[in-house]
């Protein structure tokens, strides 16, 4: 957590998570072979309590058990005092359901706190915070220097961004699409606008697909310009270049996957936990090596599309809100809050990284 662009902080969080999970996996005793369809918990699934590893288990079972051990090592939320007040949650649509769950569970500890929903979309949430420093904004991408400058030019005097979960993304196509994998350069050529610095692929034949689909147009399914997902694609895939305009726009990542499932020529990047039975994730060809979009690949850092989910506040408000913002941040970084993130299909943070963030939110903690 910092007032920087969050790229370095995000790398720290992802690496810390990777270290703990892989260490846990490495200590597990099993004779099972890895599976190819591993994914985070489906949204709405109750995460079971950690169980001892016994007998033969799949790689997904091992990774799931490791994640649960990680959750168990995070401090639970402790109510420090009674709270009253109201907070408006604005921003990332990706975080909409998670934010709702967080506020619902938080109210079990603090019944007199009232939450309301503001404008949707990462860009809209940042703008809302600039106009009203009492807003708590969600962002599904790292903040940029321009974001911070815009916040400070507005009414948000001391913007504070906190990484609250990690969201793996994958490239999806219709389940009947035979494409085996794409290189980073091919991926750029799919999403890049015509007339850019490099090639623009318009048909599946451009990607080496043969048969009936070869002459069919590539139809991109995406979010709008105000979405953090779209901005993340521009930053990570297109390296700042413009995205192709002939896209089918959708209100959520879930809608993207649903639409691709009915469109043989469709393609899109969306959350790993949003997949349906009608789509499949596409492997990336990295330096000649095929990297499948699996939980193992995300946790090992091989499949590169893992983004931070942020909550942004005006730290200047913390002196006059009776402790509400501090308590909200402590909750989402607690075992309770991180378990809700897992239930919604996201990855939790490493406990050591959480402690560092809490030290910056509340000051050095006695442990």
Feature tags:
globular; alpha/beta; nine-stranded mixed beta sheet; D-Maltodextrin-Binding Protein, domain 2; three-stranded mixed beta sheet; single chain; 12 helices
Secondary structure layout plus pairing:
Layout: H1 7-27, H2 59-72, E1 85-91, H3 96-109, E2 113-120, H4 122-131, E3 136-139, H5 145-153, E4 159-174, E5 181-182, H6 184-191, E6 219-222, H7 228-236, E7 247-249, H8 253-260, E8 266-271, E9 279-281, E10 283-286, E11 289-291, H9 295-299, E12 306-314, H10 324-332, H11 335-343, H12 351-362
Parallel strand pairs: 1-2, 1-3, 5-10, 6-7, 6-8
Antiparallel strand pairs: 3-12, 4-8, 4-9, 4-12, 10-11
Helix pairs in contact: 1-2, 3-11, 4-5
Describe this structure in words.
This protein has 367 residues and is α/β, with parallel strands linked by helices. It has a domain at 168-299: 3-Layer(aba) Sandwich (D-Maltodextrin-Binding Protein, domain 2). It is 35% helix and 19% strand. The chain has helices at 7-27, 59-72, 96-109, 122-131, 145-153, 184-191, 228-236, 253-260, 295-299, 324-332, 335-343, 351-362; strands at 85-91, 113-120, 136-139, 159-174, 181-182, 219-222, 247-249, 266-271, 279-281, 283-286, 289-291, 306-314. The strands form 2 sheets. Strands 1, 2, 3, 4, 6, 7, 8, 9 and 12 form a 9-stranded mixed sheet that branches. A 3-stranded mixed sheet has the order 5-10-11. A hairpin with a 2-residue loop joins strand 10 (283-286) and strand 11. Helix 1 packs across helix 2 and helix 3 (96-109) runs antiparallel to helix 11 (335-343). The longest helix is centred in the first third of the chain and has 21 residues, at 7-27. Residues 1-54 have low confidence and may be disordered.
